């Protein structure tokens, strides 16, 4: 079930956020900008063309529904005809039309009401209802998709930022170690190759740091374009990133009955729509009955003849006899086949939905477990680095062992960051699959 939440403050908060971003850009980015996850989602929801198109599709479906409703009302038509000829249209007739007739006019109005059309009008209106409901569901799904993608891009930036911090920490560590090696080399206590070992490791770290910075800028540009905020290379994403504890796991195993799942609702709508299409094909084989009234006035512009006005009522019955064995019969057969196809697609779709939800659930469980393992590994790697540093300082181990321990600790720190951000992505994916994302009302997203 979707939990709908009011975002009445979204416009004011978004405007203030964007104003801050623009102001910082104009003043030379004197300090690093920060944008939170909530601000990112609010900006993306207002900026997304997919959401705008979803809202426009709803309006289009509403217009189509009103068009179908109009079929319940009489069809009114009016027409007029005027003729003038240089010579007489009708030659003079003695005693009847002594001057002949060179102009005439005719005006008429007709109202026709369909009494019975095999159910085609009723089914057309039902199909319009289905189309409107489908458009509303797809518009909500567009909002869900924007929230999902925004969070994915946000946590990708968090991951890159935190990885940069890891490299900066290890750069400081290697700088201190390099200074120590330089002092020892000048004192003649070590060979030069030990100094070169540290320099090689530091150069590799700086290369990775440069690559990571370029990746961050590219990801930041992608993020800025998607959520609709001004790009600045100094902008940061703000997140409470606690790497010392395992987050609480608050989710229960999902129910696979699919009640309230939007994708399941779309599958059901497709079945209903297919059944209505079959009924409409049947209606084309049935008689149609209509009644109406008409009013006609006939005369001449120069009063050569007296104007004549008459009104009458009429009824019409149409029976599509040739359709019973011709094209109409084959169209009905096609619609019945399409209905069976829709049923088969529904069963396949249900299986795929259940599989996707189950996979998302186990992905989330696994991601949560990986944090625990990564946290333990980081603690062990840091302890191992401390022991190796003590042993090296006391002459009990060589520099290679220390550098290996440093690389192991750096790798463990990076793995923990990956585990945390991966869990955030798996969490939002699970909420997306199970329709548990909190979304604002569609009306609040209109300009």
UniProtKB/TrEMBL annotation:
Chief place where the protein resides: membrane
One Gene Ontology term, aspect cellular component: efflux pump complex
Family classification: Belongs to the outer membrane factor (OMF) (TC 1.B.17) family.
Pfam families named in the record: OEP
Lineage of source species: Bacteria, Pseudomonadati, Bacteroidota, Flavobacteriia, Flavobacteriales
PANTHER family: OUTER MEMBRANE PROTEIN TOLC
Annotated source species: Maribacter litoralis
Keywords: Cell outer membrane, Membrane, Signal, Transmembrane, Transmembrane beta strand, Transport
Keyword Metal-binding among record annotations: no
Superkingdom to which the source organism belongs: Bacteria
One example GO MF annotation: efflux transmembrane transporter activity
Name of this protein: Outer membrane protein TolC
Matching InterPro entries: OMP_efflux (IPR003423), TolC-like (IPR051906)
Signal sequence region: 1-32
Compartment(s) of residence: Cell outer membrane
Keyword Heme assigned: no
